[in-house]
């Protein structure tokens, strides 16, 4: 049978979808209500925006952002619920819950007077995006892609992967936020230092804090090394959970294509499509070449060796990266994101880009300490 109601029982989607839908829903809430300040009740019903006149001015960016933001939510939610055995129930939940979530968030935005304007158009676009995600999920179920993923999990992935596939799936999204060095996620020290001095200003702790000394910028060779390490380390994390060399090679090519696309998207959103390749400096080109060469040489590494090398690469990259000062053009890029039309994406991508390498360190550590599979021998009587 190939009816709608029997799709899920045959395919049994992967349980990773449930984890991803919870994470993605939390990210949607964060992005919709950022910066969580300026709350004020204006004496108007929170749902009054549903009956207000339609906005006079729309932008293609707002339409695309509101439409596409809910596609993954509808997709992942449908796949997660479909494990119960009813694709009809999964489709209903995959559409209804995102619709209600969007309605609740648009209503809450009515309290963010200075930062958000609730709109019934945004709610409709969010719901349509969720519907597109539901349709895509149903097509995947009919095509038995979840069943193929389950088979791949059994034969292609190590049994104890500690969430590495989900983390690697977020790598391109983490790279959308501008970085001072291409692929240089995790440069948090200058922000932590500034926050610490701001908190201690005027208190008894201020005299005890060391005077910050200006750090010299990274040399071109050091920048190339940082780029190479920041690309090689996530690829090693993937190698640590993939069983076969062929699978590692395919993962490497796909991951490189996705992260390059993420940097092109980030530069296009920040400076315009004409400057999409502005980040590809000679240092970045040299670092990418190093990373590709190291990735090819590492294809045959053991799983534990790949995890350990990933840890060492991240430690060295983060040490070098956090010693570098933020360059002026980088600060200008952040201004465009923090106060321009990217304010909805700013909080989400900023935290993701800052914390992703440290999550990769934690996962890599667990993979390095993973117990070797026990060999079971048949004893003769």
From TrEMBL:
Transmembrane segments: 14-34, 41-57, 63-82, 89-111, 123-141, 162-180, 224-242, 249-271, 277-299, 306-325, 345-369
Keyword Transmembrane tagged: yes
Pfam families linked: VanZ
Keywords: Membrane, Transmembrane, Transmembrane helix
Ranges for domain VanZ-like: 25-139
Protein name, per record: Predicted integral membrane protein
Keyword Aminoacyl-tRNA synthetase listed: no
